[in-house]
Amino acid sequence: MNQRFLAIAEALKPALTKRHIALDNADKRPLKDGESQTFDFGNHYVGYLTLSLSFQGSHPDCPALIRVRFGETLRDVEEDTSDYRSWISRGWLQEETVHVDVLPCTLVLPRRYAFRYVKVEVIAVSGKFSLVIEGLTAETVTSAPEEIAPAGGSELARRIDKIALRTLSECMQDVFEDGPKRDRRLWLGDLRLQALANYCTFAHNSLVKRCLFLFAATADETGRISACVFTEPEVAPDDTYMFDYSLLFVNALEEYLAATGDAETAKELLPLALKQLELARSHMTEWTVDDSDVLGWCFLDWDLTLNKQAGAQAVYISAAKAAARLCRALGEDASHPERCAEEASKAAVKAFYDEELGLFVSGKDRQVSYASNVWFVLAGVFGQEKNARILQRLKAFEGAVKPVTPYMYHYYIEALIESGLKGEAEEVMLAYWGAMAEQGADTFFELFDPDRPDASPYGSRAANSYCHAWSCTPSYFLRRYFQS
Ligand code: RAM
After folding, report:
1. What confidence tens digit (pLDDT) does each residue in 424-470 have?
2. Do the domain assignments include residue 316?
3. Radius of gyration of the chain (CA)
4. Within a 10 A sphere around the Cβ of 393, how many other Cβ atoms?
5. For ligand 1, is residue 403 a contact (CB within 6 Å)?
6. Which of 118, 142, 166 is the last residue of a domain?
């Protein structure tokens, strides 16, 4: 662990703004075994919950056994989770079973939750008394500064912006979290998009700096940057390394410099950024990324059928170009990253571009996907016109693997903009995020496939996060490109 970097990161730990929200239960309905009551806080919140409980009937002669469930959406608290089947832990479900020995009482629940809805279910009382919920209080937390000016545009655009801003601010805690329900920690791919949206909205730039230093501090002995960092009980890297996420450190650093002008930080972290390019070569033969079926070696999108080879190559080129820009901006020699970008671009055209299809293909089965083509457009291997044609062909190509997350949609929209297809980019954004808004979203989701609303890469929708920071970028697109 690089202690100096860690000290810089820890000195930038933000203060959290707290707010109290009290919900009086006007109804005060006495609850018996099997009965429940659901409360609606009216918006998505991140924070701590206290319940004020009493009873009706005789003096309680046994503990009240209750279950408290938290939902980012109403379905989260309504669905039966007893047969939860997912390859990620049931521990992520936001529900507590509590014995209440003494009534009346003030029950302080132990965790920080992400919720709009709270459902209290009575599992067991006795025949002599009923449980009464007097009220609930939430203490909410965020490190986002107060309100910021909304974006302009159509009614739908403004609605999307509002939801996107709330998504981002809910995820701004001690670090930029991926989602306040799950995984509640710092992931590099997520950070890059959060930072982009942050620069033109909350401008909490010291939080970006803190996160960059956390990744830098926790790089392994070879300099490899982890995909994810834990901050509790102590700062520690996850032992998950992803080809694209490590490289995106370069892009994130370059964008940080462009947004803040903080050359000191950029200079300090430049060697580590360049190191990611060098380390990526271990996945390459000459200048071409090897194919791999190791799950999670490169992320790109939450689609387990996606072949990552071509997309990984494109991310490499994009990072090499970002590194070259970074070097130039800092007055350093850019010839090495420039050469990496050039060589990898030449190799990419040979290995992955299918002249006949006019598209990039990936893996031994020559898979056509949005992920591969979008990333090659962003990598700028071809010029703007050819890129625009690639994106048009992609849309018409039956069977192209589509994006499933707002994360991948972000890159698709960016690719459309860079190819001069700004109008189409705006349409795609309004349609995709607009469909979530239509479903009544208070915050945007981790995954959203309009054709398969219950889809989850985890095997259960209950495991999905419905406030996920990588979906906050409409606030960035609206301010940067679509507001004129
Ligand atoms: C999910 C996380 C995060 C993402 C990783 C790859 O588990 O929630 O958003 O970056 O996957």
Report:
1. 999 999 999 999 999 999 999 999 998 888 899 999 999 999 999 99
2. yes
3. 24
4. 15
5. no
6. 142
Query: Does any ligand 1 atom lie closer than 6 A to the CB of residue 190?
Result: yes
297 vs 312: CA distance, rounded Å = 10
Q: Which domain holds residue 54?
A: 17-142
User: How far does residue 178's CA lie from ligand 1's centre (Å)?
Assistant: 7
Cα 308 to ligand 1 centre (Å) = 16
- The reply to whether 8 falls in a domain is no
Reported pTM: 0.97
83-126 confidence digits (pLDDT tens)? 999 999 999 999 999 999 999 999 999 999 999 999 999 999 99
Residue of 92, 190, 249, 410 best suited for mutating to test ligand 1, as the one with most atoms within 8 Å of CB: 190
**Position in ligand 1 atom list of the atom nearest CA 187:** 10
**Are residues 281 and 340 part of one domain?**
yes
Query: Are 68 and 33 in a shared domain?
Result: yes
Beta-strand relationship, 64-71 and 228-230: unpaired
302 and 396, same domain (yes or no): yes
| Model pLDDT, residue 295 | 87
Helical H runs in 125-221?
155-171, 188-199, 205-217
Does one domain contain both 162 and 76?
A: no
If one counts the domains in the chain, the total is 2
Is residue 73 situated within a structural domain?
yes
- Report the C-alpha gap between 235 and 176 in whole angstroms: 14
Nearest CA to ligand 1 atom 11: 302
- Amino acid found at 363: G
Distance (angstroms) between ligand 1 centre and the Cα of 277 equals 22
**162 with 268, same domain?**
yes
Q: How far apart are CA 416 and CA 419, in angstroms?
A: 5
Is 150 within a domain?
Answer: no
